[in-house]
Amino acid sequence: MELNRYQPYALALLRIVSGLLFMEHGTQKLLSFPGGAHAGVPLMSIYGAAGIIELVGGLLIAAGLLTRVVAFICSGEMAFAYWMAHAPQSFFPVNNEGDAAIMFCFIFLFLVFAGAGAISFDAARKGSA
């Protein structure tokens, strides 16, 4: 099919947008930007650790650097966050506000297996950019 040739670029777009959105969760926790319910958490707390993973992990995923390893860590963090913070509130993700955690978890799990795609440092390091 004609669209198949654009698959590496679609994968790159998914990776970049997901990484930037994930990074925003980290900036909210660590830098209080943008403000909100989770802004300004203590650095030496479980939420501070989550913020570091989200900020650094989101940046590395968006850049496509060490994508598979970083995506594995970020996927695990989101699974942990869902079961620790969201699932106890309600069985239904729409009610426990955990749908973003689930989505990030599975997008990052996909990136573990798919890799970074085009327009990435990983591709450039392998000479396939």
H-E order: HHHHHH
Structural domain count: 1
User: Structural class given helices, strands, pairing?
Assistant: mainly alpha
Low-confidence runs: none
Number of strands: 0
Number of helices: 6
In quaternary terms, these chains amount to single chain
Shape summary: globular
Determine the fraction of residues in helical runs and give it as a percent range. 55-70%
Rounded to an integer in angstroms, the radius of gyration calculated over CA atoms is 15 Å
* Biggest sheet statistics: none
Strand content: under 5%
Q: Quick check: average pLDDT?
A: 94
Q: Terminal Cα separation, in Å? A: 23 Å
Structure notes:
The protein is mostly helical. It has one domain. The chain is built from 6 helices and no strands. α1 runs antiparallel to α2 and α1 packs across α5. The relative contact order is 0.16.
What's this model, at a glance?
The protein is mainly alpha-helical and 129 residues long. It has helices spanning 7-31, 46-63, 67-86, 93-96, 99-114, 121-126. The chain is built from 6 helices and no strands.
Chart the SSEs and their pairings.
Blueprint: H1 7-31, H2 46-63, H3 67-86, H4 93-96, H5 99-114, H6 121-126
Helix pairs in contact: 1-2, 1-5, 2-3, 3-5
